[in-house]
Amino acid sequence: MWLGASDKKDELSRTTLIVSLSTFALFCFLWVAKQAGKTVPPLPPATKSEGFIILSSSLSVLDSQNSYVSNTVSAMWLGWLGASSEKDELPRTTLIVSLFTFALFCFLWVAKQTRKTVPPLPPGPRGLPLVGYLPFLGTEPHKKFEELAGIYGPIYKVWLGKKLCVVVNSPSLVKEVVRDQDTTFANRDPPVAALAATYGGADIAFLPYGHEWKKLRKIFVREMLSNASLDGSYTLRREQLRKGIRNVYEKIGTPIDVGELTFATLINVMMSLLWGGTLQEDEGANIAAEFKALLAELMVLFAKPNVSDFFPALARFDLQGIERDAKSIFEWNERIFDSAIDMRLKYLAKAKDEGPGITEQKEDFLQILLELRERDDAATSITTTQIKALLLDVLVGGSDTTTTMVEWAMAELMHHPEAMRRVHGELTEMVGLDCIVEESHLPKLNYLGAVIKETFRLHPALPLLVPRSPSQSSTIGGYTVPKGARIMLNVWAIHRDPKIWDNPLEFRPERFLNDSGRLDYSGNDFNYLPFGSGRRICAGLPLAEKTLKYVLASLLHQFEWQLPPSTELDLSDRFGIVTKKRMPLIAIPTPRLSEPELYTK
Ligand code: HEM
To answer: How far, in Å, CA of 379 to CA of 230, rounded?
Structure first.
């Protein structure tokens, strides 16, 4: 079959084989003819060249059952090859040529087989020399990637400058990445700006998979965000949220930027979880305002396409100054963290002098982390840099994402009055209009839960998750994914795939009501992945889930929200590290609750 095949790639090795076989046949013919015309010659003196030894020993193996014949034949070969008779010249040359050609054939065949076992790179659009597909990506890469999925299928590649990106668009291939080969794909591919702003990538989000990442993640999930720790910090969250609600109440009847209000509230919530009341009231307020500006700037920097990321050879020139700006944010950040740590240490020293009891109220994240720093055990103790990296993960991971989702959910509800009525109905029934929402109410708010899930489906905050990178060359969907490539899991396309979702572009929370909880945030169903999946799934998920529902339930329970007169609701988005509403949601609150005191509690 192979000899008759017309595959051009096989042509060279086929020709080589044919030449080698025919030369060998010619040699056999000449040798037999020669043997027929003479008697067996006496044994010549052995000439010990390497080739003779190999040849003789291989013949011995072939004929190991008859050592006499074997010895005789090998002796003949040795003698014949070593002889200098002119009569032997032709068959000898023929043998050498045939052996050489045969070896060449074997070499080509093995090379071809090796090539065959390495699958090709995924298909993908052709780009321009040097810049690849960068000029065609536009300002909405998530939509462009969705469009390309329609053309190239469940996996494709794009070259962005010198960076090979592989985009995975189907649940079954996402599963190959985050479940079947999760360890291999558990590295990140941090952009230059992220490295500059996160202690060189020393935080959970950007550390490569390995011991340090596992240690920090364990501390984050088991110590900082454990159920006990979250329950214990409820009063901190409640206090900050109540402050936010009071703020809204003071502006009743006037247009409010919902995103701005939520962001400010969440920064306060996160800072309170980080270091509680360490900072004085007005100092805390100043720092919260500074952080707000800092994070907003950081998000802009992270979202900017950076030449240094696409052309690593140019990174040291920092052509756009992005690394420089990220470093200056980092320094600012560093000062705030240092001062909070310093104040806490002074407080602890004072507490030690003044006797026990005073430290008990401070079970915030900073306290947990400082206690870990004091441990002698290298496996669990952490450095000051790691403390700051973890604090940063809470602030960066927790504020912009959650704010974005509050804004989207509010906007979708205002766009779908029937869904808004249902949410209000549920809140009235489960909480009542004579008291305020507490976290204990949240599990009962099923419809609001479905609204949030549907919002995540239509508007995933990170539509391509946080890119991963394989630690070794691997195969996904039958294609090679080389070590170090950037892997983007296209949650945006999966959440909008009509083969998976009925009328995917419609906002229909009901689709999550009757799924018996199958579609949750755990990342086990690869059709629905707003928080990612596998080892690298969002580390802040328990806090995110709680905070988002708590903030939304409170804003919706206590107020009706209307658009300002003669404005229209805009539901378009703007791609970024977190993909948000293009236009801020501006809405006018009016009170829903019976007693004004309920707003100032
Ligand atoms: C609505 C809110 C949030 C959303 C939508 C969100 C989404 C995500 C996503 C998609 C990832 C990447 C997962 C992957 O690669 O598979 C991620 C990672 C991460 N998130 Fe969140 N997140 C949210 C809130 C939070 C909060 C509140 C925190 C911290 C308290 C947080 C901390 C982190 C960290 C540390 C990582 C990196 C995990 C790792 O690489 O191991 N996130 N998040």
So the answer is: 24
462 lines ligand 1 (CB under 6 A): yes
Give the orientation angle of helix 258-275 with respect to helix 234-250, to 10 degrees. 150
Which protein residue has the closest C-alpha to ligand 1 atom 6?
531
Which of 590, 252, 266 has its CA nearest to residue 405?
266
Q: How confident is the model at residue 450 (pLDDT cuts 50, 70, 90)?
A: very high
Question: For residue range 311-363, what is the model confidence (pLDDT) as tens digits?
Answer: 999 999 999 999 999 999 999 989 989 988 998 888 888 877 876 655 554 57
User: From the CA of 152, how far away is ligand 1's center (Å)?
Assistant: 29
CA distance 275 to 341: 9
Q: How far apart are CA 460 and CA 578, in angstroms?
A: 9
**CA atoms within 13 Å, Cβ hemisphere of 5:** 11
Ligand 1 atom index nearest CA of 456? 5
pTM: 0.82
CA-CA-CA-CA torsion sign (458, 459, 461, 464)? positive
> Is any ligand 1 atom within 6 A of the Cβ of residue 17?
no
Cβ–ligand 1 contact at 458 (below 6 Å) = no
For the Cβ of 461 lying below 6 angstroms from any atom of ligand 1, the answer is: yes
Those residues whose C-beta lies under 8 Å from the C-beta of residue 180, and which sit 6 or more positions away, are: none
- The answer for residues whose C-beta is within 8 angstroms of residue 353's C-beta and 6 or more apart is none
Q: Is 560 helix (H, G, I), strand (E, B) or coil?
A: strand
The type of residue at 100 is: F
538 is in an annotated binding site: yes
Closest by CA to 311, choosing from 165, 128, 131, is 131
Enter the tokens of residue 395: 């602030």
Rounded Cα–Cα distance for residues 137 and 461 (Å): 19
Taking the C-alpha atoms of residue 408 and residue 580, their distance in angstroms, rounded to an integer, is 8
Q: Distance (Å, rounded) from C-alpha 29 to C-alpha 64? A: 25
Q: Are 470 and 484 in contact (CB under 8 A)?
A: yes
- The rounded distance, in Å, linking the Cα atoms of 46 and 299 is 81
Q: To the nearest whole number, what is the mean pLDDT of the chain?
A: 86
Give residue 161's pLDDT: 97
Ligand 1 pocket, 532 CB below 6 A? yes
> 544 alpha carbon to ligand 1 midpoint, in Å?
8
- The helix/strand/coil state of 489 is strand
Beta bridge partners of 155: 168
Q: Is the pLDDT of residue 23 over 80?
A: no
Spelled out in words, what is the top-level CATH class assigned to the domain 141-599?
mainly alpha
Question: Which of 21-30, 218-227, 358-367 is least confident?
Answer: 21-30
- Point out the ligand 1 atom lying closest to the alpha carbon of residue 460: 5
CA distance 457 to 502: 12
Domain ranges of the chain: 141-599
H or E, element range at 588? strand 586-591
Q: Which of 12, 17, 28, 13 is nearest to 94 (CA)?
A: 28
pLDDT at 77 over 60: no
Whether residue 537 has its Cβ less than 6 Å from ligand 1: yes
Ligand 1 atom with the shortest distance to the CA of 523 = 16
With a 6 Å cutoff on the Cβ, whether 194 touches ligand 1 is: no
Can you tell me the distance from the alpha carbon of 15 to that of 260, in angstroms, rounded to the nearest whole number? Answer: 73
CA of 11 to the centre of ligand 1 (A): 53
